[in-house]
Amino acid sequence: MTSTSPLAAQPDPSAVGRLGTIRRTGLSIGVATGLYGISFGALATASGLDVWQAMVLSAVMFTGGSQFAFIGVVGGGGSAIGAALAAVLLGIRNTLYGLVLAPSLPRTGVRGIARAHLTIDESAALAASGTTTEEKRAGFWAAGVWVYVFWNLFSLLGALAGQYVADPSAWGLDAAAAAAFIALLWPRLRSRDAVAIAVAAAVVALVTTPMLPAGLPVLAAAAVAVVAGLLPSSGRRAGGPPTRIISKEVPR
Amino acid sequence: MSILWIAVIAASVLSFAQKWVGYQAPQDVLERPRIARITTVLPIALLGALVATQTATSGAEIVLDARLASLGAAVVLLCLRAPFLVVVIGAAVVAAGLRALGWA
What we know:
The complex is a heterodimer of chains A (252) and B (104). Chain A is mainly alpha-helical and 252 residues long. Chain A has helices at residues 6-9, 13-46, 51-61, 64-75, 80-101, 109-117, 121-128, 133-161, 173-185, 192-208, 216-230. Chain A has two domains: 14-172, no CATH class; 189-235 and 248-252, no CATH class. Residues 1-9 and 234-252 of chain A have low confidence and may be disordered. Chain B is flat and about 50 Å long. Chains A and B meet through α2, α3, α4, α5 and α6 of A and α1, α3, β2, α4 and α5 of B.
């Protein structure tokens, strides 16, 4: 007989229902994001990668933005080194996700490796929508695992059948990606601060897009979060170094 | 082994390392109020930026096309409390429809 915690032995029915909803959302995200894998596979082979190279990117790199950046540079006639650099630049945000997720996820053994590997936009976003540690975990694993399964499945399909897929954007798959991100962002826009941060980040990303190499605009936008985090809206400033950001409403 | 293969493998391994290293930050650092505030709002900023770049950029250019109308449709569906999959499929259908009609 295994010992279980009282909480696990007598689960709260409404909490179980919420976990079920989160897991189903994870499956939805997996299917929606996975379908976009068709366009990755198709574009990868059109860019000059073979099917195996496309699948190593989907299975091992497994972070859509970086994968598209990689094949974008190769397809545009850039060097392989340039492609790798673009992918790595775009992947820096996954490090930030790890910082956010670390307290909620197990850190050792196979699951410790798996949590790192499955750390992507979608899993981090669904985890962030959870209110308890259990919900965060359920969201992370559901989105991470399902996206992994469908992303690889559809990448393979796209890579093999790429030449028959005229144009993935004709199916609206590029628009589906934007919709998925706004759907994940939506529940977090409960406060005026959150809306302001999201809008400011969007503006920074758009303004810097023509100036910076692929991947950097999203990171430049992450600076908005750093500034917002440093802004002393909570009034807790004791012990901190002098800040250059001066806000009128702050008692010093 | 071709240079392309080396780049594929190196970039893939580095991508995993980037994910892994984020989890290695010491907990007490993450619990500092200022760091905690940053990590709390970070997903909002990153998602806001991803929405913008996915909707309105193509390479290094700002491009306004059917994706913008799709985003509008997604927002309407979200206001109507539509489930996630409905929002995503609805946006894709709008973009595909506009393109099929040659309007965007």
